[in-house]
Amino acid sequence: MASVDPVLVVLISGILLFVLAVYLMLRRTLLAFSEGMREGNRRD
Questions:
Q1: How far is Cα of residue 37 from the mean position of the Cα atoms in its chain?
Q2: 3-class secondary structure per residue, 1-44
Q3: 1 by DSSP, 3-state: which?
Q4: How many CB atoms are located within 10 Å of the residue 28 CB?
Q5: CA-CA distance, 10 to 4, in Å (whole number)?
Q6: CA 13, CA 7: separation in Å to the nearest integer?
Q7: What angle do CA 19, 30, 41 make, to 5 degrees?
Q8: H or E element: which one contains 3?
Q9: For residue 40, how many C-alpha atoms fall within 13 Å in the half-sphere facing its CB?
Q10: CA angle 33, 40, 36 (to 5 degrees)
Q11: Whose CA is closest to 16, among 4, 24, 28, 6?
Q12: What is the pLDDT of residue 2?
């Protein structure tokens, strides 16, 4: 079995963590936005 380059593992792990963080941030933003829209429609 070929040896795995540790730099490559760290790089791929970092990219995956970054993508996960962006996904969670966008999800939280969109949920807060939709909640705000619902709250705004309820007041009118």
A1: 22
A2: CCCCCHHHHHHHHHHHHHHHHHHHHHHHHHHHHHHHHHHHHHHC
A3: coil
A4: 10
A5: 11
A6: 10
A7: 180
A8: none
A9: 6
A10: 20
A11: 24
A12: 73
Terminal alpha carbon distance of the chain: 66
Letter for the amino acid at 38? R
Tens digits of per-residue pLDDT, 4-42? 899 999 999 999 999 999 999 999 999 999 999 998 887
Residue in this structure with the two tokens 């070929």, named with its chain if needed: 2
Q: Copy the structure tokens of residue 21.
A: 């963080």
Give me the residue label for tokens 């909640």: 35
Q: How far is CA 16 from each of CA 11, 13, 19, 25, rounded to the nearest angstrom?
A: 9, 5, 5, 14
The tokens describing 33, both together, are 């936005």
CA-atom Rg of the chain in angstroms: 19
